[in-house]
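Dock flavin-adenine dinucleotide; give full complex structure.
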Amino acid sequence: MTDAAATALVWFRNDLRLDDNPALRAALDAGYVPIPIYIHAPDEHGDWRPGAASDAWRHRSLDALDLDLSARGSRLRRFVGPSLPTLQSLLLATDAEAVFWNRRYEPAIEKRDTRIKQALRRQGVRADSYNGALLFEPWQLATRQGEPYRVFTPYWRAALASWQQAPNWDAPKQLPSTDRGPDGVPLAALKLAPALDWDRGFWEHWTPGEAGARAALETFIDGAMNGYAEQRDRPDRVGTSRLSPHLHFGEIAPWRAVAALQAQRTAARAGDIDAAIRELGWREFAHHLLHHFPHTPERNFNPRFDDFDWARTVAPRLQAWQQGRSGVPIVDAGMRELWHTGWMHNRVRMIVASYLTKHLRYHWRHGARWFWDTLVDADLANNTLGWQWVAGTGADAAPYFRVFNPVTQAEKFDPDGRYIARWVPELAALPTPLRFAPWRDPDALRRAAPDYPRKPLVDLAAGRDAALNAYRERGGGE
Ligand code: FAD
């Protein structure tokens, strides 16, 4: 390029891709030479500074984005925050006329971005943001009374009625670039990669970055999509897309996933495709709720639970749950899958969450925080919705008195005990029925797995009764 060409900063955040990237596209359409930047400012996330597993993923995803940019003649320049002063000094140093970015919806980030946009515009800089993450932005849908939705089914019905498929935009083969301005810091300076390699196991399962996201979508379409409606509840199979971290980091646009699914539509596949798109709908709903009820990562959606008799913190039990040593095999399998891979199957997330909030009667925030630190797909909207839903404190939640029995859940959704055997291998030698409830044969358990807990942290029936009593005391009725 000539040095006279007008430039714009393209501020990458949770949109770590080049295709379907509205901010990048806007910069190019306006005739700017884009200067791709990333600003590391974890302190600006309020109480929800990204967790360790998220950081590990982001490190690799930023690396992949830089490689993708470099292959097109550009590059990613990295900086360490705070965001507004960093943007302002970059505008000066590069002589850029504009800043473009794609929106995020976490309450602290929304507020920060509004302040940044106002400050930049006040100083005469073009500052424009776009929707790069959602099928429907949180404020796009409202009830007839103009209120936010609180129940998924009418929300999703309204969403489908106003559905318009966004066209896919392929990444340009070449990108103009400029050397103006500072180079930024090396990726390692962001200190995102774990110092100890506890994340080693993750990368047998995941390939962060845009190419990894596309590959996951293709694998899903060729495989688990067929039969998804039935298989999605089976943790012993690859029955779901495993797109969640890719969607969280914006390595793929949800509308690209929807278009790819719709392209496969036949009468026979319609049920599976609708079921998969509906799950993406829960992600949309979660963002709708987080935007309209920004206090819910911390506080109950349903204030009736505000003085619920949660267990006082009893650290050893919480730790046993975290470490996959609760003595309930399906719970332990889930928690160990989480630790080793940074992900857990949705059905098992529900089971472990129910066990923590009902049998152990811990406040759901304890679980949400642990997930926040350990999930590679940790997402403030989805995690908040998931925990409040299971705990019974949320919008459109499962009622508190519906307590999952982890033994019958395992029998139903892991019928051969294969998932349990994979993640709690010391129980693999037990006959299948015993894998679900090994305390029923103490001798066999002692022989097969001398180090596995002899019995669950709480007796399942007693834990259930105590939870229901606590609920009734708060005036809850069935
Ligand atoms: P698929 O079944 O293939 O679904 C496709 C996509 O739809 C997912 O990638 C995800 O983006 C979205 N989706 C699916 N189910 C849900 C759901 N119930 N709520 C919102 N979006 C959904 N999901 C996260 O992305 N981040 C979280 O931090 C998170 N925390 C959770 C905590 C609890 C207690 C529970 C019960 C659920 C949580 N979920 C979370 C939702 C769900 O478990 C994961 O999205 C799903 O397991 C991801 O696997 P997948 O990509 O194979 O899903």
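Observed: The pocket of flavin-adenine dinucleotide is lined by residues 232, 240-244, 247-248, 279-280, 282-283, 286, 346, 349-350, 353, 371, 375, 377-379, 382-383, 385-387, 390 (CB under 6 Å).
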